[in-house]
Structures are given as structure tokens and as C-alpha cells.
Amino acid sequence: MTTKRLEDTVGTIHIDLFATLDLVGQAPGGPDEDPEGGFPFGGWQAPLFEQSGGEQVAAGMQGLDALLLGRKTYDIFAGHWPHQPEDGLDGGIAALFNRVPKYVASRGKPDLEWAGSTLLGPDLVAAVHEIRDRHDNIHVIGSLDLVQSLLRDRLFDRLNLWLHPVVLGTGKKVFDGGAVPANLTLVEPPFTTPKGSVLLRYALAEGTPTTGDMTARG
Q1: What is the pLDDT of residue 8?
Q2: Do the Cβ atoms of 208 and 181 come closer than 8 Å?
Q3: 47 with 197: CB under 8 angstroms?
Q4: Which residues form the Bacterial bifunctional deaminase-reductase C-terminal domain (predicted)?
Q5: Sign of the C-alpha dihedral, residues 130, 132, 137, 143?
Q6: pLDDT at position 167, please?
Q7: Domain segments of the chain: what residues?
Q8: For the domain bounded by 12-30+40-206, which CATH number is listed?
Q9: Which of 159, 182, 194, 199 shows a CA-CA span of 20 to 30 A to 175?
Q10: How far is CA 165 from CA 27, 55, 196, in A?
Q11: How many angstroms separate the CA atoms of 24 and 159, rounded?
């Protein structure tokens, strides 16, 4: 576990999300990932996955020293990554995820059997600040319910948003009632896969959106 010195700056929280063009982020990975609400499109991302996209995801994990996850995403990860060979195709990610501390936001009291897992207390804001003080590079992957709370309280620094060329018309949205007005800055050029998926890496900026009048322009 990384221990930060008192004089160090707070850690960076990355939110990594995979969404459709209508910003549905529910169950991208598989049919049984999150069927809540009778969602019929579980696994919608699989036909669009490409090696170049996987390489971008892996590159974005460089320096990761903690995971912050919602309960559902934690259960999915805990059922998968500890059982993957760390010298296989996804061995680097498996080894990384198995090694780093995992912090879980849940209203219940789940059994956290994945090594290095800790249940957060009821005060999410205080818990996230403590994680920032303890680690340098924290990633939130999926975890849409948790993400709504982080967006509402501006408890993130980077938003890494994958947009995929499909429209579903139903399902949980990336911005689904938790967002507050905010400015973001694109920190690097968009990356596009051959199948048309686009990665946008944003940083949270100061202030809130301003307005103007386009009709006033000559």
C-alpha cells in the first residue's frame, strides 16, 4: 500500500466509463453484469472491443495504486480477476488489480473476500478524502451509482470517457441525476479505434459553465 507524506498533494481520482452515444453505461461487459430494470443489452461493448482500445485502457492504468468501486462492480471484478493467470493476455491488469488496495462503497455489509479489500464507512465524502490522502492514483471503473455521488460532490479529477457507436435507448446513464454544473478540459487528443469507439480524457476545471448569445453574432 502506498503511504503518502503529509506534505504531499492529494491523489488524483480517475473515473473510467464506457458508454454508448446516448450515454448508457449499464452492463457493457456481459449479459449478467447488471440486469437491473430488465436491461436487455448486457454485453453491448463486446462486439466493439478491439486490441487498440484495450491497449489504451491498459496505458491509462499506469501508476494506479488503488481502486474505488461500487458494490456491483466490485462483485464482478472479485469474481473475475483473482482467477485470471497473471502471465496471460490480461496478466498485467490481473496482477495490478489483485495487488492494489480495493475500496468498496456499499450501503450494506458485504463479505469482501478479494485480498486487500476495505468497506468504506457511511460518510462517502470523508472516506474519499482519506483515500486521496493515502494514494496517488485512484481509479473508479464503471460503478455508475457511486459515480453519481462523485459527480455531485465534485470528488474526481479526471473523466476518461469511452463513447461507442451504438444507441440503446434504455439503461442507466453516465450522467443520471448526480451531475452538477462543471467545466472540463480535454487533456489530450481523442483516440479513435477502427470500429469508431472514441476515448475522451477530460480534467475537471474551475468554475461552472457560462452562457452567451449566438444570435448576437453578425
Answers
A1: 57
A2: yes
A3: no
A4: 17-187
A5: positive
A6: 98
A7: 12-30+40-206
A8: 3.40.430.10
A9: 194
A10: 16, 19, 6
A11: 16
* Residues whose CB falls within 8 Å of the CB of residue 215, separated by 6 or more in sequence, listed in order: none
Q: How far apart are CA 35 and CA 33, in angstroms?
A: 7
- What is the torsion angle, in degrees rounded to the nearest 10, for the CA atoms of residue 107, residue 113, residue 118 and residue 123? 0
In 7-136, at which residue ranges do the beta strands (DSSP E only) sit? 12-20, 66-70, 102-105, 117-119
> What is the pLDDT, as a whole number, of residue 1?
44
- Alpha-helical runs (H) found in 86-143: 91-99, 124-134
**pLDDT (0 to 100) of residue 89:** 54
63-120: pLDDT as tens digits? 999 999 999 999 999 998 998 887 655 668 899 999 999 999 998 888 899 999 999 9
| Alpha carbons 89 and 118: distance in angstroms, whole number | 28
DSSP-derived pairing of the beta strands 158-164 and 12-20: parallel
Three-state secondary-structure class, residue 98? helix
End-to-end Cα, the chain, rounded Å:
59
Give the 3-state secondary structure of residue 208: coil
Q: What are residue 169's phi and psi, to 5 degrees?
A: 80, 0
Residue with cell 496471460: 88
